[in-house]
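quick q for whoever's on today - can somebody do inverse folding on this one?? i tried earlier but teh output was garbage lol. tokens:
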């Protein structure tokens, strides 16, 4: 029969194209019926029909077994097929001693293991003693995750390898074991196979979880093979860097735990729900993570576009007076690309008079008395306000980066006419920092007397050069390393990050009030 099969392939296999020369391609091109008919011609007689076979099960035959003739055979696990002496693990020495003492034959299995057979029962105890002395674990003491795994040699001996396999798999199995324990699947042990290139020498395409090397430290991920390796897996990820392995697999294991059926294996689960369902769950799981917090009426609503840092903003209800007139640009946590953020005002630091914090885009409502009926006009603050006393102009003081939380209106109930003095001066109580952690070079002060509509007691100082506000940041932000420390301190103190950031801002501004130099003050106490 074997001669007839080889002769059929010899005479009809494709010899013109090496990549199309194997017998599997001949079977694919011909089909089973045509191949079988030609095989019968070479064999010389008809072929009996197939006998029913039991369901195939994956067996590694580790440990002691009856051979069937009164003798025994012993299966020894060889991790990734590497027979070696390493520290207390002395497999090479143990095998050499057993063969020299008992002259036993060996078989190599398709799963990289070794079988010693033709063993007399009286030799069993001595062989066990040799294995124990040389650090060889019994099959029941081997983690099933390691026992049913396999990797090809890859680097440094294989010229086709694109990345590590044999040397990398033990560490990866350790990571996967920790993940399974973390999500409550400590008893699970999916069949895992890894190769350093797509040639698949360790059969990753039949594993429940397969790794196929595609670039340095990067692998394809295959899911859905059966525990008995009778079903092909399906590609899940084309390129996954090894540093992202735990993040990706954790979400898949969580989905497996939540949706598995009783006694369903990992590979059977992946095959049942399908690759697209797994991708959808992983995507939704990632997008459900949010930095938003609803503590102390504050939340994270935008991200600093330069450093990918959340901006602390007030979460209270906004009105048309408190809402900024320009949308703030923020970046997403995932891709650091700009997107339109919520129109929330920046939080006003504690102990700062909100009526003194204005921006060039903020407007002030003033009432003009022309007739008994009053009308309301809107005048931007960045235009000069004329005084009727000395006919001088004075730009309104501003503090860069802080919108007005309340409209600036006269304190006297009587309506005022444009050009009449304002009863209450608008002066900054302290220079507000443009960005947390950056010192304020010069406070923004009026170029004319501080009290609008009154004569100056001191001569006006020469006007300062206008500042380039386009280079100033208009949001409260913190640097990336500070935000990381805030998160750590949040866990330690049990407080929300927003609350800690707000306290830090208030403390920073209080130090400025006391004329402490920001350059000598730490950005945070954390």
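ok took a stab at it. sequence:
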């Amino acid at each position: 029969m074997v001669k007839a099969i080889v002769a059929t392939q010899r005479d009809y296999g494709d010899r013109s194209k090496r990549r199309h020369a194997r017998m599997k391609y001949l079977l694919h091109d011909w089909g089973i019926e045509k191949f079988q008919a030609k095989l019968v011609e070479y064999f010389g007689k008809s072929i009996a029909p197939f006998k029913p076979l039991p369901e195939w099960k994956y067996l590694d035959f580790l440990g002691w077994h009856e051979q069937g003739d009164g003798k025994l055979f012993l299966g020894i696990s060889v991790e990734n097929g590497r027979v070696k002496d390493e520290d207390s693990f002395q497999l090479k020495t143990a095998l050499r001693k057993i063969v020299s003492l008992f002259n036993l034959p060996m078989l190599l299995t398709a799963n990289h293991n070794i079988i010693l057979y033709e063993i007399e029962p009286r030799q069993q105890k001595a062989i066990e003693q040799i294995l124990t002395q040389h650090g060889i674990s019994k099959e029941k003491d081997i983690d099933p995750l390691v026992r049913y795994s396999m990797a090809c040699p890859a680097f440094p001996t294989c010229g086709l390898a694109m990345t590590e396999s044999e040397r990398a798999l033990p560490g990866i199995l350790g990571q996967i074991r920790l993940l399974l324990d973390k999500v409550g699947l400590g008893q699970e042990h999916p069949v895992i196979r890894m190769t350093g290139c797509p040639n698949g020498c360790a059969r990753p395409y039949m594993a429940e979880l397969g790794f196929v090397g595609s670039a340095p430290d990067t692998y394809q991920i295959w899911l859905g093979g059966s525990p008995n390796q009778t079903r092909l897996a399906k590609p899940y990820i084309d390129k996954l860097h090894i540093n992202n392995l735990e993040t990706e697999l954790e979400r898949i294991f969580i989905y497996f735990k939540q949706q598995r059926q009783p006694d369903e294996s990992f590979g059977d689960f992946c095959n049942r729900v399908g690759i697209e369902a797994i991708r959808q769950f992983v995507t939704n799981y990632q997008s459900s993570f949010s930095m938003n917090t609803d503590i102390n009426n504050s939340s994270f609503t935008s991200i600093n576009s330069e450093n990918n840092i959340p901006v602390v903003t007030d979460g209270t209800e906004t009105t048309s007076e408190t809402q900024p007139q320009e949308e703030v640009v923020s970046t997403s946590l995932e891709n650091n690309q700009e997107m339109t953020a919520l129109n929330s005002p920046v939080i006003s630091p504690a102990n700062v008079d909100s009526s003194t914090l204005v921006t060039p885009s903020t407007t002030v409502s003033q009432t003009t008395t022309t007739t008994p009926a009053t009308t309301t006009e809107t005048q931007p603050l960045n235009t000069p306000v004329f005084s009727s006393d000395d006919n001088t102009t004075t730009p309104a003081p501003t503090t860069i980066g802080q919108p007005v939380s309340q409209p600036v209106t006269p304190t006297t109930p009587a309506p005022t006419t444009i050009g009449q003095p304002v009863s209450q001066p608008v002066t900054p109580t302290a220079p507000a920092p443009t960005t947390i952690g950056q010192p304020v070079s010069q406070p923004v002060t009026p170029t004319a007397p501080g009290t609008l509509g009154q004569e100056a007691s001191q001569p006006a100082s020469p006007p300062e050069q206008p500042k380039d506000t386009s280079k100033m940041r208009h949001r409260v932000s913190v640097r990336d390393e500070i935000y990381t420390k805030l998160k750590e301190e949040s866990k330690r103190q049990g407080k929300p990050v927003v609350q800690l950031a707000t306290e830090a801002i208030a403390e920073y501004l209080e130090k400025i009030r006391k004329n402490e130099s920001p350059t000598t003050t730490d950005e945070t106490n954390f």
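fwiw The CA atoms of residues 303 and 309 lie 5 Å apart. also The mean pLDDT is 73. so keep that in mind when u check it
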